[in-house]
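Dear support,

I submitted the protein below through the web form. The confirmation email said the job was done, but the results page showed an empty box. After a refresh the structure appeared. I'm attaching both so you can tell me whether what I see now is the final result or a partial one.
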Amino acid sequence: MRTGATDAHAPGGGHCAPAPRPEPATAPGDPAAARVGIVIATRDRRAELATTLRRLAAAQPDAPVTVVDNASTDGTPDLVAAEFPRVRLVRLSENRGCAARNAGVAHTPTPYVAFCDDDSWWPAGSLARAADAFDAHPRLGLVAAATFVGDGRRPDPINDLLARGLGAAPPGLPGPRVLGFLACAAVVRREAFLAAGGFSELLFFTHEEALLAQDLAALGWEACYLPDVRAHHHPSQNRPPSAWRRRLELRNRVLVHWLRRPAGRALRETARLAGAAAAAPEARGALADVARDLPRTLRDRRRLPARVERDLRVLER
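What the results page shows now:
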C-alpha cells in the first residue's frame, strides 16, 4: 500500500525544523452548519490551487475551506486572499511539509476534516457520505476514499489495495479496515486526528500517512475504505525532483520502523538501506539522514500494541 504519495507541500528542503506558530488566519465564512471542513496544504502552485478552489466552491459550497500556505514564493497567499475571500488562509513562515495540515486542522472547527492537495478535490456528495459514516460509527477515525486520476477519472491502483485492506468489513464498520491511505483522499474525525498527534513533524514528506494510520489504530480508532466516497486527483507537473523524493522515501521508511516497530525489524530495514547505499546515491544520502535523525526518532519511539503489529504483519505478508 502506498505510504506517502502527495507532494503539494514538498519543495523547499528535505528536513523540517521545529514548527513555528502560524500567523493569524484571515476570517472565513460562517462554518456553523457544516459537518466537514476541508484543509489544503500548498506551496508554489498557485495556478493548480486556484483551479482546485473553484472546483470545491462548485462541488462543496457549504464546506468551509482552509488553505495552509507552506511559505510559498510565487504569490500563492496573495492570490487566495484576493480571489477567494471566503477561504480561511493560514500563512506559515517556513515550509513545514506534511505537518502544515496540522495547522489547518487547528483552524477548522468542524467535527470532521477532509484533506486535499492543491491538485485534488472532492466531488458533490462524497463528504456528506463520509460524514454519515462517521455519525453512524463512533469509533471510526478515518475514511479512506477511492481516488480517480485525471480528466479521464482513471481508478488509482491504490483503490484495489484499500478494498482488500485487512479483509472484508467486520460487523459494526462501514467498510474494510485499512492501515494506509492517501492524504489527498482522506477524511478524519477531528477528535481522533488530534488525539493521535496529527501528521509527523519529523517525516516532512512521504510515509506520514502510514505513521498516522498506525497511531490511530494504537488508540483504538478504526480506519475504513469507503468506495462511494470519491476524490479526484489531477497530478501536478510541478513536482519535486525524483532523487530528492526517493531519498526521503528511503529515509522515512527506516524512521517509521524505528518510531513504532520492533527493534529487530527496524534493524533489518536499516541494514537493507545500508546495503543499497554502496550503489545508489539516494540511499547513501538517506542513510546519512537516518544517522542524523535517529536520536530524535528514538526519543519519540513507542511500540505499537500487539494487535496493531499483527495487522501490519498480515499486510506485509
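Response: this is the final, complete result; the empty box was a page-load delay. DSSP finds eleven helices and nine strands in the chain.
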